[in-house]
Design brief:
single chain; alpha+beta; four-stranded mixed sheet
Length: 435
């Protein structure tokens, strides 16, 4: 943006006529030497050199250069940083005096004289100071308006967002379809819902509040929320488990793990894809962890802790429980819930696989607060079960905490400040990385 201002010579009146050709040569000469900071002065010199006709509308227009606006006020501290040089103002005043012979250059600019304590003055100087002042005031006012508008806009946006989230929360508490809308509203309300869990909302109440979580596709909402917490990790288990499975035979031989020969043979020699090899790998996997001492409450509701060492079977079944018939789902879950309550714990997410008499696994379930999510594969069950601890803000089951700790660190490459340090897990990860 250009700031143009008229400078009317004090002698300019009706008696001012056309500049002679002789004077024009001098005028063009001096204007040629004027700094390029004033485009109109350069244009003035060009016109003088060609037709010796300058006066139009009874004034001469000189332009304050564009950079005055950008450099006069520093946006950081609102203080003036740059100025038009004294030399530039002198040349401009000289140009006016040459163009208008009856004018004095001192009328337009007299520089500051330190010894005589004379301040800078003149029409150019006054105009320049006025423009600087206008720029400063304009900047302050515009900043104030902008800040006020920004603050108002942000406050209004926050209010609108809060109202929108509240509407979405209310909708989710009363609807389970259409599913694409459920997904959108779950994504929009993640932070609000997750904060409620962090602030102490019970998991069973949370599942009751949002009926879509209890639907057959409810596990996909667990995935959706996990993606909000750890973006980009939704599929990492599938890739990393393939690497882990291929390293297992070497690791088993190195660590002399017993009673897994059949599963190792399946991994190495089976031409079947998918669940058969995955389940063989999982059966080896749970055998890798030795019992560790865990704490328990002596009585439900008591604050006094005691300790016990679970058996290998208890470790494995707290992670993954095999049944022979789907009718056993509720029976197993009730028994596990009662046991957890008896030692002062809450039953945390776990998996149940339905295995036929010939060793074929036909169904895969993730169990969370008495809700049974049926998924399509063994690895999908592990994935959903793991993600549920984060999406529902839960603790790992103490008996199998080292198993989930390994999955978290090795499979998902996630570490948090709440992690327990299991030396056995660290050693296992190190050994697998070196296999």
């Amino acid at each position: 943006m250009m700031y143009d201002f008229p400078i009317v010579p004090s002698c300019y009146s009706n008696d001012v006529g056309v500049i002679t050709a002789q004077n024009a040569s001098h005028h063009a000469n001096i204007v040629h030497n004027i700094p390029s900071t004033s485009n109109n002065v350069q244009y003035l010199g060009h016109e003088l050199g060609h037709n010796a006709s300058l006066i139009e509308n009874n004034m001469v227009t000189l332009s304050v250069p564009t950079q005055i606006k950008s450099s006069t006020v520093d946006n950081t501290n609102k203080q003036c940083r740059k100025k038009i040089s004294t030399d530039t103002l002198k040349k401009l005043s000289q140009a006016i005096a040459f163009i208008f012979p009856n004018e004095s250059k001192e009328t337009y600019y007299t520089p500051y004289k330190k010894l005589k304590l004379t301040p800078a003055r003149g029409k150019l100087w006054d105009k320049y100071c006025n423009i600087r002042r206008e720029i400063r005031n304009s900047t302050k006012q515009s900043d104030g308006i902008t800040n006020k508008l920004d603050t108002t806009s942000q406050e209004q946006l926050a209010i609108n967002n809060k109202e929108l989230y509240e509407e979405d929360i209310l909708w989710l508490k009363n609807n389970t379809a259409p599913w694409d809308i459920v997904n959108i509203k779950c994504k929009n309300t993640f932070q609000t819902r997750f904060n409620s869990l962090v602030n102490g909302v019970e998991n069973n109440s949370y599942l009751t509040d949002y009926p879509a979580l209890k639907s057959s596709l409810g596990f996909t909402l667990i995935e959706l929320d996990f993606e909000e917490i750890y973006p980009g990790k939704n599929l990492v288990l599938y890739n990393k488990f393939e690497v882990f499975k291929n390293k297992l035979p070497t690791y088993v031989k190195k660590c002399n793990i017993k009673e897994v020969d059949q599963q190792v043979d399946v991994i190495q020699n089976s031409f079947e894809l998918g669940n058969v090899v995955t389940i063989a790998a999982l059966k080896i996997f749970v055998q890798l962890f030795k019992p560790v001492t865990v704490s328990k409450r002596t009585n439900a509701g008591s604050s006094k802790n005691s300790y016990f060492r679970p058996s290998k079977l208890e470790i494995q079944q707290s992670f993954l429980y095999y049944i022979s018939n789907v009718s056993q789902l509720k029976e197993v879950d009730d028994a596990k819930s009662n046991r957890a309550y008896g030692i002062g714990q809450k039953l945390q997410p776990y998996m149940i696989f339905v295995e036929t008499g010939d060793g074929q696994v036909i169904s895969f379930y993730v169990v969370i607060n008495k809700y049974f999510y049926k998924v399509e594969s063994a690895l999908k069950a592990v994935d959903i079960c793991f993600k549920s601890f984060f999406s529902f803000h839960l603790n790992y089951t103490p008996e199998c905490e080292q198993i989930w700790n390994f999955i978290q660190k090795y499979m998902y490459n996630i570490e948090t400040k709440y992690d327990k340090n299991f030396q056995s897990v660290n050693s296992m990860i190190n050994d697998l990385n070196n296999c």
